[in-house]
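Hi team,

As requested, here is the filled-out complex form for the adenosine monophosphate run. I kept the field names the same as last time so the parser does not choke. Let me know if anything looks off before we queue the next batch.

— J.
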Amino acid sequence: MKTIYDVSFENKKALIRVDFNVPLNENNDVTDITRIQAAKPTIIKVLEDGGAVILMSHLGRPKGIEEKYSLKHIVDTISEVIGVQVKFIPDCIGEKVETEVANMSMGEVVLLENLRFYPEEKAGDENFSKQLAKLGDAYINDAFGTAHRAHASTAIIAKYFPNNKYFGDLLSKEIQSIKKVLESNEKPVLAILGGAKVSSKITVIEHILDKVDHLILGGGMSFTFIKAMGGTIGNSICEDDKLELALSILEKAKAKNVQIHLPVDVIAADDFSNTANTQVYDINKIPDNWQGLDAGPKSIENFHKVVVNSKTILWNGPLGVFELSSFANGTIQLGNAIAEATKNGTFSLVGGGDSVAAVKQFGFTDKVSYVSTGGGAMLEMLEGKTLPGIEAILN
Ligand code: AMP
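And here is what came back:
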């Protein structure tokens, strides 16, 4: 794996694909700078070597050129975060861009306009990739969030840099941390999968059964398993077309000696709201008109034991509807248990949109070993797929 630390960028213009697809509020202020902070080490490495930086990214899902998706809105935030004044170029290919880049001095940083203003970006267009490639002496991919896409700037472009394409600091850290879980000798290895649906995580579950010793299945997806095993789940969320699949997963786990841990009790509510009446029920005895929205006290205790006895932990998906404060406790207690394990030397990786949101909201970011910046990309790696953005640098 060739990373930016294997080379010097002295007198080189490095074309860096970053993932600056950040959330903006109605005033176009960046509301979460995590992804910009995450790209900082790579940018600084190039500058400290004596090189120049050309940043390229997408933002949102524009249909053609849409002002609200212009990367000009985030230039000041990037400058603040990296501590270097960034210059914005209002296009990403073409003569004007080429001239601006040709006139750059070492030590400078420019940001190109949203790549997705050109449909060629998502189409993985060769000519568009070639035009982008003209801008840099070296190519660095540091955009883990889009590494699972075969787009022009994330994958196709790499072929124009056969001898000078590199993994950025963030992308290599993301790969290492997932490898640390999937290829771990630090046992027991535990995966915790929660969230709303089994269907979105099936491939992950099937792939990681070969890699883990324990699997906690929590949150909304657990009800499909409970119903499949004959439980009564009231109005709880359930995918009735996945009942057989749930049983087959349980059988496969048994055959592979993976211990499955499902919740044994739930906080059920008579309405999907913060002010609903709540009641603790055994998970397989939820009455009609009640729905399980959070892990119950016995489940939390059981999960705590499994977590603190694990040496490697992967967490994806909340244990309840944590967006409603009345049903956030299970997810918070799980975060506490993972923090406790981490403090005692366990490696913990958290990834996937909603668990990352929960980790940030409840202040666990610095109490786990690594928080992934990529939702879809991380899930695809956990499914055992090779990601185009990673392949393109390796080959
Ligand atoms: P996912 O995107 O599949 O990881 O699912 C995350 C979503 O699952 C969050 O928005 C949670 O509110 C939701 N969730 C977790 N537990 C439950 C539950 N028991 N009932 C309904 N939704 C849930």
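Two things worth flagging: The chain is about 35% helix and 15% strand. Residues 20 and 57 are 6 Å apart (CA to CA).

Thanks,
J.
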